[in-house]
Design brief:
D-Amino Acid Oxidase, Chain A, domain 2; eight-stranded mixed β-sheet; 20 strands; ten-stranded mixed β-sheet; 13 helices; FAD/NAD(P)-binding domain; alpha+beta
Length: about 500
Amino acid sequence: MQKYGLLEKKYDLLVVGGGINGTGIARDAAGRGLSVLLAEKGDLASATSSWSSKLVHGGLRYLELYEFRLVAEALAEREVLLRVAAHLVWPARFVMPHVPELRPRWMIGAGLFLYDHLSRRTSLPGSKAVRLDVPPFNAGLQPQYRHGFIYSDCRVDDARLVVANAMDARERGARVLTRNACVSARREQGTWQATLASGEQVQASAIVNAAGPWVKSVLNGRLQQPSRDAIRLVKGSHIVLPKLYEGEHAFILQNDDRRVIFMIPYGDLHTLVGTTDIAVADEDAPPQASAEEVAYLCRGVNRYLARAARPEDVVWQYAGVRPLYDDGTADPSAVTRDYTLRVDDEAGRAPVLSVFGGKITTYRRLAEQAVDKLAPYFPGLKPAWTARVPLSGSDFGGVPRAEARDAFFAGHPHIPETTLRPIFRRHGAHAQAVVGDGNLGEDLGAGLTEREIRYFVEREWAQTAEDVLWRRTKTGLLMTQAQRERVAQVLAAR
């Protein structure tokens, strides 16, 4: 139950953290009938969840680490997200050039066969061998690469997936607060008494600790809950370069250190390259791609490219910290990408569930399992539902996404398609609500309009230029400095 006004607010569930796991859990729990408050210390997806490789994938390389359960679950979730997040997740084909001295061809073929069959695949084509010395897959490659393989995975707009989950949770009754951390909580008479950064006091029957890199410090410090579980913080850096090759396919490139590097089309003008695995110790240090990491990624792709990528060509770089469950593995690249959900309570009451690890691909299943673990504390909880119901923005009323897009374009013949296309990509079924009567106000560049900024502020919790330019959109990559400053001015005026 929740009470508004001057009375203390009471909730069934307080979720700490507004990344992909926190918003996914809030959505799942709200849809099962719980009253939910989500408290995020910054913007939604302002940490790990917006600095990923932008992929929904099974994790092909995890097969070499014998992570079969994780890969099978991720492959199954890939199919689910294609259905329920149709405007934010889309299929992609990945090409792997064969390098005989790194892995024999039979090994790659066997791994891809397993990848195709570990989980039921209904909407994506399977893997096969391809020639790389003829179009289209020879684009940008050195001529000695003649053989390779192609397989399917998916791409995702990671930060917008977080926002869609938060919007969906709100539509189901959850209260979502950004820039308002849970600063402390304590158990009193079988319930949690929590204090938010705003000074607001709230009660909750249960807490979910989905604080990502801060999960351990939140658990031990702010919730005063001892735990033997530990996390490993591993930084992954990415670089964006001017377009390195023609075509919509991505590449997965084998590296000398047995890791792989992705080379992925990023919009019409750029290529995204990543990632690294660097152990870090300080959870509060802003992650940055080092010069060594940038050079490492350039060397990795230059083994294959006909025209070398140079560090000075990088137009944008970013880094995120993965909060991986500490399984004792020394090599950061070999630390499990699986997740652990730990529940601690006091005499069977006032539980706290902490999320250790996880990845974007499996967030929905993680959320489902998290709420299932809390079910004993909430008799009458409704059953799991998120595998069947589209996310906010992905419900096109039974019409295929492409038809819904074409109808949206046709309904606004006086607005350039170059403006409508990114709006539909970002908002899906909500695109009409963004455009409204068609009066979009000032064109701020890169397809971003004053009207859409107003929508971000009023409906999507955006407050700053960074929120808009690098999370709600990636238009900052396509704008001049003057255009980015103008966006900041428009936001300040609001």
